[in-house]
Amino acid sequence: MAAATAGYAAVHGHPLEHPGPEAPTGPARWVLSLRLAVVAGIALVVLGAGIAVRSLLGSPGAPVAVPDRPVETLAVTGRDAPPGAVGDASSGAPSAGAAGAAGAADGVGARAGADAVGVVVVHVVGEVVVPGVVRLPTGSRVADALTAAGGTTGGADLTAVNLARVLVDGEQVVVPAPGQAAEAGAGPAGPAGPAGPAGNGDAGRGGSPALVDLNTADLAQLDALPGIGPVLAQRVLDWRDAHGRFTDVAELGEVSGIGPTLLGRLRPLVRV
């Protein structure tokens, strides 16, 4: 029996002795430890970054109350408002300067306002399709005013109108019919003879109206002349003040806005 057991053990090994599991080798353990270390390191970096960001941002502060302040609005009318034209913004009431400026508009002020914005305002009458007041850019000519008035009618006498003349703010452009121009300015007139005081309303001989004396007439008398508005009348007075007096009716042509056609219509109506 002992011999058989010894022979079996020699061939198959001892039945009670079995080799245990092989111990893991060194490199595999180090690889596993390195992976764990890398994962742990990444987790620490992410955690640290999150803490740093939270520290930088911090908690939102409490809202700060901003006191309400009334909004001041300054309303300016026109391109260049004069001093005092702006009202009191807190009360909404216009200042005294604004009220004064609103009530002080006259012919000269209207012309200055038109020049400031580059516009001339003229009155077109006579043989045009749509007579009336037209607004045109500064530098426009009589032809532009007639176009703005719808053009001329078939009965217009354009030979009596200087279509190339530059318009003056506040003037009146008259387009006559044939025959009307001859009546208004019938040829050149020589120096007029003595007449009664200008503007007294008395009729001269033959029922003709009294001539207007250019050296004594006031603004209203000059404004009443055909083709002369308040602006041109003021320019006549300004020319007279600058030169002392008129020595000839022809000197009216030196006043800005009075061309040859208008001068021809005025000759029979004025004197010096």
Automatic annotation (TrEMBL):
Pfam family, one: SLBB
Biased amino acid composition, Low complexity: 81-101
Gene Ontology CC entries for this record: type II protein secretion system complex
Ranges of Gly residues composition bias in the record: 196-207
Membrane-spanning residues: 30-53
InterPro entries tied to this protein: Endo/Exo/Phosphatase_dom_1, RuvA_2-like, Soluble_ligand-bd
Domain Soluble ligand binding stretches: 121-175
GO BP annotations, alphabetical order: protein secretion by the type II secretion system
The name this protein goes by in its record: ComEA family DNA-binding protein
Domain of life: Bacteria
Keywords: DNA-binding, Membrane, Transmembrane, Transmembrane helix
Region (Disordered): 78-101, 181-209
Record-level Gene Ontology MF annotations: DNA binding
Gene3D superfamilies (alphabetical): Outer membrane lipoprotein wza domain like, Photosystem II 12 kDa extrinsic protein
